[in-house]
Design goal:
single chain; 362 residues; alpha+beta; Beta-lactamase; three-stranded mixed beta sheet; 9 helices; 17% strand; globular; disordered N terminus
Length: 362
Amino acid sequence: MVKQKRKKSANENKSVMVIIIIIITLGIPVLAIFIHKLNTKISPEISNSPIVTYTATQTESIEISPLITNKPSQSAEPVTDTPTHSDVLPTVNLDVIEIRSLNTLKTYLDYLLGSNEGKYGLSYYNIDTQEYMGIADTELYVAASSTKVPMVMYVYNAVEKGILSFDDVVEYKQEDEEYGTGIIIKGEFGDTYTIKQLAEYAITYSDNCAINMLIRVCGEWNMVNYMNSLGAKVHYINQRWKTCPYDLTLYIKELISLIDSNPDHYNEIMENLIENTVAYYMSSKSILPDTIKIGVKMGINTTLPTLNETIAVFADQTYILSYCSTEIVIEESSEILKQASLAIFEYVKNGYTIVKWDGTVR
């Protein structure tokens, strides 16, 4: 009786094993078919675009990291010469991004400005859309020659009010002497120039002697009080001849407003900025289209060292970009300035800009 039960149990175990083997044998192909169909359904939904598009809202922030790479994965299986549909996977190029919002553009520029040693900041203002973007825009930076613009604006304001006349004559004295860019330094003490000439030289040639002569005649405190009255964040004298990107943009914004209200009087300052070619090869104007009007004023000090720039771009939309940098390598700062300026120009022109992780504009 025991032997019969053991024989029956063995037969039942054999039956169960046979059933399991049959299920496994039939189940593997079914499972393979199901996975293949699932892959076929999912694959078309993956974008084949070589560009990652980032669009941020006004409140969200997208971090751009140079550590992301697009390296192919290593496979232990040999690659066949004729891959099947299931072997081919769509790729996304994470080395290139398309920026379509001001907030994301700011994130990219923040990364770009932080890619080298030194202190960097910028300020962007679109006259037409009234969009504003600032990065370290109220920090203190050495002014160099960048504040010559508001000082000349004060001179024009004084002439408009009858305090000065463009025909007033000023003598070049030894106390006005300052080497660097300009025309007057090539002359002799005792040479005379009109207020109109000094204002033109200070902007068009960034003439150091010319601005010193204007400061002597007008009074530096009067000029600084005028700058402060416009809403400047940095007190030029109290902060030991410092400025910031926000203030430099503010001055050009005010100049454009003055031109709108009295073009015959103030437009000459902008025309002189457009004619200015001082340190042209280091300016961002050198890499922007020469078919549009661009007023530019640079401030460079090789001792500190410092490189600043303010540009007014008159394209389909008018915008102002001010850039400041100090404790930098001037040539490196010039390249960062050009990359930032080109990215902003393309964004304003097209509504987007395409950039690479290394900071260059595609």
